[in-house]
Design a protein that fits this description.
Blueprint: E1 2-8, H1 10-27, E2 33-39, H2 43-52, E3 57-68, E4 74-80, E5 90-98, H3 102-112, E6 118-126, E7 139-143, E8 149-150, E9 166-170
Parallel strand pairs: 2-3, 2-5, 5-6, 6-7
Antiparallel strand pairs: 1-9, 3-4, 8-9
The protein binds inosinic acid and magnesium ion.
């Protein structure tokens, strides 16, 4: 198994995260922002992002894992749910990558049932090639092609999350 050179460098990532945070800070000025990180994958992006946001906010997390291995069957397991009150709050869901859209669609619909004041989604990466369910994305770090990537929180088999940059993952035999 090989991890190659950066596909997105530390500098590119930092610049984009700062831009996203500026946009979010402006949009949420005067609001009651509840930023929710989707673990494990979003932990690095989330911590960089919230530290650049200028408006007061509350953080919370949820832990989800998905098993999506056919076109029609996608199952999401929720291992830990948001503890903060959601009703009437301005919720920003922060994800590492949107691929088929199944995970975010499930989480989004679940949160909407709890009547947030607003719900927006911020994803670090958007991989549209394999999208099965359209999910509205309000803030996108980078669009990426149909490659499997690791680093900056993203894993292959729970490894490589600690790489400071994004790399395309190639499996060798
Ligand atoms: P979904 O297919 O949109 O439901 O994506 C679900 C999850 O698959 C993401 O939150 C990631 O954890 C994982 N995933 C999808 N593509 C990649 C990738 O290229 N690298 C690492 N994880 C990925
Ligand atoms: Mg994830």
């Amino acid at each position: 198994m090989v991890v190659g050179k950066p596909f997105l460098t530390v500098e590119q990532i930092q610049k984009r995260v700062k831009e996203l945070a500026e946009e979010i800070s402006a949009d949420y000025e005067g609001k009651d922002l509840l930023a929710v990180g989707i673990l494990k994958g979003a932990f690095v992006f989330f911590s960089d992002l919230v530290r650049q946001i200028q408006t007061p906010l509350t953080v919370d997390f949820l832990i989800a894992s998905s098993y999506v291995r056919s076109m029609t069957c996608g199952q999401v397991d929720l291992h830990y749910d948001i503890r903060e009150e959601i009703a009437d709050r301005d919720v920003l869901l922060v994800e590492d990558i949107v691929d088929t859209g199944i995970t975010l669609n499930y989480l989004r619909e679940r949160i909407l049932l709890k009547n947030p004041g607003s719900l927006k989604i911020c994803t670090f990466l958007n991989k549209t090639a394999r999208r099965e369910i359209a999910v509205p994305l309000d803030y996108v770090g980078f669009q990426i092609p149909d490659e499997f990537v690791v680093g900056y929180g993203l894993d292959y088999s729970n490894k490589y999350r600690n790489l400071p940059y994004i790399s395309v993952f190639k499996k060798t035999t």
